[in-house]
Structures are given as C-alpha cells and as structure tokens.
Amino acid sequence: MSAILNKDAASCMAVHTKFLALGTHWGMIHILDHIGHNIRSKELPAHTTTVNQISIDDNGDYIASCSDDGRVVINGLYSTDNNQAINFDRPIKAVAMDPMFFKSGSGKHFVTGDDKLVLNEKGFLSRHRTYVLHQGEGPIRNIKWKGSCIAWANDLGVKVYDMNSKSRITFISKDNPHLRPEIYRCSLCWKDEFTLLIGWADQVKVCVVRERQDDDTRDLPKKYVEIVAMFQTEFMVCGIAPLGTRLVVLAFDEDTNSQEVSKAVAGRPHLKLIQPNMDFYDEISNDALSIRGFHGYRCNDYHLESLEGESMYFIVSPKDVVVARQRDKDDHIQWLLQHAKYEEAMSAASEFSKQLKRHNLQDIGQQFLDHLIEEEQFEKAARMCVKILGKNKDLWESEVFRFAQIQQLKVIAPYLPQKDPNLSPSIYEMVMNEYLLTDHIGFQKLIKEWPTDLYSIQTLVNAVLDKLQKDGSNGVLLQCLATLYTQDKRYDKALHIYLKLKHKDVFELIRKHRLMDSIVDKIVLLMEFDSKEALKMLIENIDRVPVESVVNQLEAEPKYLHLYLDGLFHKDPHIAQEFHDRQVVLYAEYDRSSLLSFLRSSNYYPLQQALAECERRNFIPEMVFLLGRMGNTKQALHLITNELRDVDQAIDFCKEHNDQELWQDLINYSIDKPSFITGLLHNIGTHVDPIILIQKIQDGMQIPGLRDSLVRILQDFNLQMSLREGCKKILISDCFLLLQKLIKTQKRGIRVENNQTCHICHERITIRDLQYASNVTVFFCHHAFHEDCLPAHNMESCAICSAQRRSPGVFAGPNR
C-alpha cells in the first residue's frame, strides 16, 4: 500500500472479506489483503484515468469499476469467462454489481450512473442489453446494491429501486439543495438488506425497507421505506457505516469565512461513533485522524468503507489508508498501561487471556514491577511478585537479584517461594546472609520457618560461627546456632548450647530427639535451669536415666535430691525403697508437713534411725507414730499426754491399738484432770466399761459437762443393746433360712429312679413328682412314700428299713 500511494493517489476502494480493491487516479485497480499487501503480482487492467467507484459481488469472484474515461470494466479474479469492458462514450461516475453476479443464470446484471441510471444485462448469446431505470435529475454520483434493492444518489436526493417488483419504491429528498454534490458527495451504505444509511453532507438519515401489510396495494409498490432516525450534524459527512445499533461516521470540517471553496482551509478528519435518534444524536467517541496532506483535501477526497461482521473500517484519502477497528481487549489493556493502571490491566489480562494477541499477563506484570520499583514502592512490588512471577524459577531469581542490587532483599524475603518452584540454594543463602548481617531476630525467624532443604545448613553454620568469633556472647546467634545444629542432627552440640543459655527448648529437644543418654551427666544443670520440668522428665524416664545415677549427682544438692525422691515416691512408693532412710532426713529438713505421711506409707526405712532423727528435731507426732509402730505404746502415750496434752489424740491412739493396759494408763493419767475425764467420758463407752472410770473419779471433783457425758454414756449403752438385739434377730433369721436351704438342697440331691412306686400303696412316683409335689417323702435310704400313706407316728424314719434292721438312718436324727 505504501509503495502504491507513494507514486499514485487513491480515488476509491471496495472491501470484501477476502481482499481489498483499491482504485487510483491513474486508473489502476490493486488487489490487496487487509493489512495492505499485494495478493496479485500485477494490478488489474482497468482505466486510463481516475477510477470513480468499484463494486464486488458477494462471493468475491468479480470486480466492476467505472471511470471518467467512459468505460465500465468487469474482471474475474478466478475466471475470465465473464470479463467485460463496455465503453459508454461519457464519464461514468458510479457502478454497482448484482450481489449474485457470480451465479450462473443470474443475468450478470450491473447498474451504471451518469446522467441516468442504467441496468446492464448479459443477454442471449452474450449480447449486452441496457434498461434505463431513472433519468432527468442530474448526475448520479453513488450507487449501492444490496439484495434486491438498489439505492442511488443524485443532486436532488436518494432513490431506491426494487428489482423484484421492477419499480422504484421511494424518493428521499435532500434537505439542503444548496450544497454542491461535486464537493459534498452523498454517502450510502447498506447495513443489511433492509437498512440503508445515508450521509448527506450535514445530515444523516437511517431508513428501513419494509413490506406493506395492506391488502389493497394495486397502485403502490409492495415495499416502502421508513425513516427511523434523522438529524442534522455540525460537520460534513464523508462516509457512513454501521456498528451494531450505532453509526460510524467519517467527519470533515472546514475553517472558512467566505463562500469560496478555494479559500477554505481543511481540518483534520475525525472518525466519530454516534448513537442515532430522531432529530438528535449522541456522540460516543471521537478520534482525530492523522492523514498525510489533509490540509489540501476536500470532503469528496475521503471515503469510508466497512467490512461486515469484523468491525473493520477503512478510511481512504489520496495518500493514506487508515484502518479503524473496534477496540479489542489488547487495545483496552494498552490504554490501561499508558495510564499506569497496571492492576486493572493485569485483571483484564487474566480474565480475557484467550482473546489477547499482543499482550500477556507476564509482560504486563513485569511492567508493573518496573513501575513499582521506579516509584520505590518496594513492599508492594515484592507482594505482587507472587502473583506475577508465579512458578517461573528464572524470573524469580532474576527479580531477587534486582532486589539485591537495590538493597531490598529483606522486603522480598517473606514472599519467596518455598516449593514449586524451589529456587537455587544460593538465593536463599543470600537472603539469609543479609539478615545475619543486619537483623539477627529476622535471621532466627527464617531458619525456623524455611525448610532445611532450601539451603546448605553447613554454609549457614560457618557464617554464624564467623559472626560469633566477634560477638561470642550474643544470645540470639547462639540460639540460631543451636537451631542449625538441631536441623543438622548434631544434637549434642545443640544441647550444650541450650543448657549454656538455659533455654526453654532444651527439654523439648531432649524429648523430641530422645537424648536421655546425653543428659546423664547434666542432671544438676537441668535442675538448676527448671527443676519442675527436669523432675518430670527424669521421673518419666527412669529406665533411661537410672535412679542411682541421679541420686549420686544430686548428693551435693540435697534440696533437688529431696524433690526427685519425693516425686519417685508419689509415682510408686517401691521404686526408690533403698533411699527411704535418706528420705526421712530430707523430709525432716525440707518438707516437715509430709514427713508423717511418708512414715505411715513406707515400710523401707529403719525405725530406730528415723526415731533418732525425730528425737533430735523434737518432732513429737512423728515420734508417737514411730514408737507405736515399734510397739512401745506406753512411751508413745506418755508423749501424747505429757508433751502434746491432747486427750483426743490419746483416745485415738488407744482406739488404734485397742490395748486394755493403754486404756488403764490413760485413765490413771486422766483421773486428776477434769478436761481429760470429760474427753474420756465422751469416747470411752464403746471400748472400756465406763464404770471403771466413774468409780475412780474423786468425790467433789468438778468435771465440765458431766451430766451430758453421763447422758451420752447411757445413750451409747442403749444403742449397743439395741444393736445386739437387732443382730440377734438377724442371726436367728439367717440360721433358719440357711437350714431350709440346706434341707431343700439335700432333698433335690437324692437320687430316685424313674417309675419308682410308693412302698405302701404301690402307686408310681416320678422325678417330676419329687421336684414339684409337696405330698412325697423320700428318706436317705432312697425309699419313697406318699405322706398320706405313712402312719402319723412314723414320719421320721423309713418303715421298711426300721422293720429290716433296727438302726438309725444315714445321719443322727431324722433321715428324711
């Protein structure tokens, strides 16, 4: 296209879905594709001067052209059978082919326009025939044929001819007759077979061809035209085309203060998108076009052609052809990028990825990252890397190096992928080294959060050790080193550091990795760090850490030893029985309140040694218990009465041992102590005869609560008597019940043969009779009788056996 227009000038164009046909002022016709490349090696033979109009059939097989040289030429692109070159001997301004020209038997019609509209037909024996359809209204400058309708424009207006009815169906007059048609040509365009678009200089009309519904159409055409939209414009219309329900209009403006066209200064042409209405229009968009030499062009120098179904529009000027397309998603994204709306562009690219041809999400995202970094929005740029870079390892590594160059590695670190993809270990190590140099807490967080397979543990260990050479007391770095040792399964080194730092993770480390064998020689350190946790761990693992080993290490720390042995004792009193003698001393020293409970529960300590320890410390209650266990109850009672002076405890002690001598000693001790006598009177009744105590009370002694004590003694006596009577009744009742049960059991245990008969009446007695009947008597000698058959005086012994031998039954007494 560029080469053609550099040496020639475009005069007209016709478009088809297959190609473009460009006419020039030198009379040439070039066949091009939709992006301006020649698709024929040579131009078509056509005219000797300006090509005024080109027409293409619907199939794209034939092209018709006309020129001021008076010739109309029809060329077949694939066949020359129907090629024609007709000379009319007068300038032909317009031509239009039958859309069905390619069909055989179609008549090969085409129409031409000069001072009249002529229908041309290829008749019998290829003879050329013509029919005048209209004349007498001036030159015809534009013709458009669609379906069965032919529309043409002359100086007065636009008319439509119906080929089916062979009649003109409408005349649309021009509202402004003063506009000169040779300067302001009328633009025609069929949107479809029924909708005609008319652009008359400063006026636009939209017309629809309809079928008449009236029954009486004898004097009228079967079709008529209705104007559905009409409005005046503030610009000159150089071309018109449809876009859905809207119109695409090529607009032309002139700056002039006179009526003389030669003095007018042409402006830049505009491509407008408008919404038509009756009497007005709404402008949707307006694009100014950069056309070479537009200052010297007039309205008729521009043409607008459209490609149906593809929303492509071709603006033709003498030296330029501009293609206008409906904005697609690529255009929208390009506009968003130009206005720095990157996030909206990414969203649109993601949503319409299959419709994009020039853009993709990756490139848009990269532009967005460049913009964010340029604007120093590093945090947002790092966050967007996750969405933009996705799973592309190379892009991730490249971006990390860029962040490193601008010293922003710590910003991108939280967003680095840890899986799918895995970056090179050097990338993660570079980031960690940045934290090691500037942020020890952040470094510690990374080594805990990042999987160990992302980096070389030994590399980081060496780096931390180098750092510790300069700052050996840095607790955070020591913790980091311990964590790295743990990750590298060098648990002994990690444990040593944790113990040195007294870090809470030491116990978790020991449990998790079963390091009990490693702490056998570190018991004291663990107890000093956290005795509660250490005791819990040691007691739970006595099979891994022997009790003897722990006791030996804690010898120098008796308080910790006491805690350990006490924990073992509560878990199982038999575990550390060999150390119970030592525990007596430890309880006496550190936990006096638990000593007596321990003495009561354990049987593995030397009583004499424990008594000596308690005597040394003057622990009277413990001494009382030990003396009682050793059998020295008298001395124990003496301690209670003389040292503790606790009558209740003395009474409980006597009750516990239930020794009459102890009771007698307690009574003798209490006889001159009224408070002790009161206590004895309240409690002695069920263990010792109260008379013994009462007889020893001296006359005239005042005893607090004596009356109540005596009443209580009587009540206790009555209660005892009542209990004895109740027990006696229960005993007697139980004896009778047990005796009956024994007799029934013995009766059922006697073996009786089937079909046995009563030995007196000789009637049959069955086993069922023995089980359920109450009038059968069986003796231990196995003889059975009906009770009614036995004499009343002989119910206790078998009459048969008594007769045979005068001896008792199986056992003394009745043998029944």
UniProtKB/TrEMBL annotation:
PROSITE patterns: CHCR (PS50236), WD_REPEATS_2 (PS50082), ZF_RING_2 (PS50089). Residues 758-802 form the RING-type domain. InterPro entries: Beta-prop_Vps41, Clathrin_H-chain/VPS_repeat, TPR-like_helical_dom_sf, Vps41, Vps41/Vps8, WD40/YVTN_repeat-like_dom_sf, WD40_repeat_dom_sf, WD40_rpt. GO terms for cellular component: clathrin-coated vesicle; early endosome membrane; Golgi apparatus; HOPS complex; late endosome membrane; lysosomal membrane. GO terms for biological process: cellular response to starvation; endosomal vesicle fusion; macroautophagy; protein targeting to vacuole. It is found in: Endosome membrane; Late endosome membrane; Early endosome membrane; Lysosome membrane. It comes from the Eukaryota. SUPFAM superfamilies: RING/U-box, WD40 repeat-like. CHCR repeats lie at residues 538-679. It is a peripheral membrane protein. PANTHER family: VACUOLAR PROTEIN SORTING VPS41, VACUOLAR PROTEIN SORTING-ASSOCIATED PROTEIN 41 HOMOLOG. It holds the Pfam family zf-RING_Vps41. WD repeats lie at residues 44-74. Transmembrane segments: none annotated. CDD domains: RING-H2_Vps41 (cd16690). Keywords: Cytoplasmic vesicle, Endosome, Golgi apparatus, Lysosome, Metal-binding, Protein transport, Transport, WD repeat, Zinc, Zinc-finger. Belongs to the VPS41 family. Plays a role in vesicle-mediated protein trafficking to lysosomal compartments including the endocytic membrane transport pathways. GO terms for molecular function: zinc ion binding. Its main location: membrane. This is Vacuolar protein sorting-associated protein 41 homolog.
